[in-house]
């Protein structure tokens, strides 16, 4: 589906004033009504391909009651049938009953959390014309959701060294490194929505991508799959054409979207209803080999994770000598102060985030378990802390849970429902989401450590 001309032309979705929004949306629906009843097959096809699925999504997944009700009424009058349960399938692994509703009554631990959740949803909707399924998953933890939104806003939309169309395409490249269709589709839609170059996202668009962006291919693949191989030589090769502030911005985008791919694929997040046809596996090729080639072309080549045996290899980075809190943050802050602060806030919050519950039981101290998940995630990427007793990992995390953590961190495209079913801990849906946040942030911190260590070694 070509999103250009669908979301971007429904201006009502971005109007905050209720009366003005109602009038504009009514005008949009009248236009759709005319297309439906047109004698022209072209006009009817235009409605079906560009607007019908979006209206269905709005009838089911809109936080604004006026838009939701008007969409539902339009579909009823025009006898357009749909399956609400299919439209609202947020995750293939997390039951729908465990996903917070966008409107109406939602069960939260406090009124503050509920208010924050509703406020974020409305702000997201006015910004993007949707609350993504990734955001809905994060709604289980509104404070984390808020910090995530702050990171994405700062990295992609606020002032910085890179222009927007470059930022969003670099995020697209990063998502392709893990074959993350969902993030690729959302990057494509946001690129078109905010004036990016639509042709860049077409199957033939690679020829139009600036050579300077393509130079990031090696960094993209190494940071995604073998970050311990990324070093000052890679920085040196890139600084021939990149300014250091531009390069830091690009590398941070890669790191952020690699880690987000782990959440999306680790939790089986499904595309929103009007983005389903943008799934690259369905739209580009039915041939698996061609599919793989397409991801590789966008990501910049082929590379996979390989086990890093810390006992047999020299550690390229020792966190006791170089870590994110003491050194890495300062390097990013020097060139990207706003981004550095938002990254630090989210990483620090996730490390300590807890409700002292597990498996539905309250009053449980989860500090040792949370730290074990964090340390194990970073160890499979070659980071080992001298002041941590790694026997705690084996005490806290059993074999099948380790398998899930490693797959989510290192090869998230291979995660299936079976991986979750085999987790040998008593976890409810909220716990599984929490575990994925820990993996995501531990992985993000790892990539940032390797990235900033390489920058420091060069400069």
Automatic annotation (TrEMBL):
Cytoplasm in keyword set: yes
Keywords: Cytoplasm
Signal peptide: none
Main subcellular location: cytoplasm
InterPro entries: AhpD-like, Sestrin
Pfam families to which the protein is assigned, alphabetical: PA26 (PF04636)
GO BP: any one term: cellular response to L-leucine
Keyword Cytoplasm part of the UniProt annotation: yes
GO molecular function, one term: L-leucine binding
GO cellular-component term (any): cytoplasm
Compartments, as annotated in UniProt: Cytoplasm
Coiled-coil segments on the chain, per record: none
TM stretches of this protein: none
PANTHER family assigned: P53 REGULATED PA26 NUCLEAR PROTEIN SESTRIN (PTHR12474), SESTRIN HOMOLOG (PTHR12474:SF0)
Name under which the protein is recorded: Uncharacterized protein
Organism classification: Eukaryota, Sar, Alveolata, Ciliophora, Postciliodesmatophora
